[in-house]
Amino acid sequence: MTTSRPPNPHITDPLLQPFLSSTxxxxxxxxxxxxxxxxxxxxxxxxxxTQTQTQISALAAQTTRLSTTLTQxxxxxxxxxxxxxxxxxxxxxxxxxxxxxxxxxxxxxxxxQGFVPKGLSPASSPxxxxxxxxxxxxxxxxxxxRKHSLLSGEAALHEPDALPRLRxxxxxxxxxxxxxxxxNVALSFPMPPSLLATSTSSLISxxxxxxxxGLESKGQDALARLKQEVVEMLERxxxxxxxxxxxxxxxxxxxxKGTSEERARGRWVDGLEAVVEDREGRGKAGGGHGxxxxxxxxxxxxETSASGGGPGFLRRLxxxxxxx
Length: 324
What we know:
It is a single chain. By secondary structure, the chain is an all-alpha fold. Among the domains are: 9-36 and 44-100; 189-202 and 214-323, no CATH class. The protein has helices spanning 26-33, 45-102, 109-115, 153-157, 162-187, 193-200, 213-235, 239-252, 262-282, 287-304, 310-323. Helix 7 packs antiparallel against helix 8 (239-252), helix 7 runs parallel beside helix 9 and helix 8 runs antiparallel to helix 9. The radius of gyration is 42 Å and the shape is elongated. Residues 117-147, 279-314 are annotated as: Disordered.
């Protein structure tokens, strides 16, 4: 497949096109440019002289322009040659430094021996080395077995100590990423103090803490966003994503296990899960009215679940005692 060269911007003038032909002939060029003397009536000598002078002036102007361009290009090449020589010397020095590092007495020799202590198998070919595909395939991870071993038979039985350490580091990194992701979700899942008060109230207390209006507002907004996110998933018909989101929030609640917030968060997630189950049970035929009704009842159940019964009665009894 032949590729066409881009046109040279310096010789795009139509006046120069005849000179670019491989079969250029000065005689044919003059015969084509100047008027013929065999025409009837024949042109006068002054007319021929005028046209010839005009053509020569145009060619002289093109010659001057091309000479100036050639001089500029030559100066640019001469100025860039020193810079190019400097870059070549830098690359040469880096190549020599890399060769020294990879040699038997280099600093990287011991590190390479830690991964391939017995060296590469002589029978292995470059095609046996797994590489990244051209279509953007993922490289093989240390936990994925390779189809072709890079080590010889004896070295494959006794892998270097560095590989188990790398696998351990990979597992630690994966665990850290999981923990970081879970705590990021936990930071986006605050509980308003009004919901926590229903689970943390006790019979004897000196004075109840003052509820910060900012914390209450932020907590309510965060819960509203989480609920709206699940509702939007259900409206799109993506029930699997909604269940996964609820399951993720339930897993995050394990962070508060054994604390005073565990029960309140669990009840709120239970209410959200009830919304998802109700929507899946009703199906798309149920419409949005039933979903909104179920959502409101579930959230109200979370907010008022502790108002009746033992804890609420004890709190009212405590308030009456202090009022007396």
